[in-house]
Amino acid sequence: MIAEEGDEAVRPYADHLFRVPVTPTLLAPLVTTVPLQVLACEIAAARGHDVDQPRNLAKSVTVE
Q: Which among 23, 31, 53, 54 is least buried, having the fewest CB atoms inside 10 angstroms?
């Protein structure tokens, strides 16, 4: 779970907790993007996927 610093109400609902600084609501997506990307990378690596070679990336990036 991702929660702002000082938010203890979420503790009973989370096995793992990422703390982010308190920010205005409109800026929260900018602050939470980095922990979510790290989490996605770790999950993909744990599942055995090559995180440096996404599937079908060459097809969408290269245009001849």
A: 53
Per-residue pLDDT reduced to its tens digit, 6-48: 888 999 998 988 889 999 989 989 888 988 888 889 999 999 9
Sole residue written with tokens 């900018």: 30
Burial 10-40 (b: 16+ CB within 10 A, else e): eeeeeeeeeeeeeeeeeeeeeebeeeeeeee
**What's the pLDDT score for residue 53?**
72
Phi, psi for 18 (deg, rounded to 5)? -100, 130
The number of beta carbons lying within 10 Å of the beta carbon of residue 60 is: 8
Q: H-type helices in 1-64, by residue range?
A: 28-46, 57-61
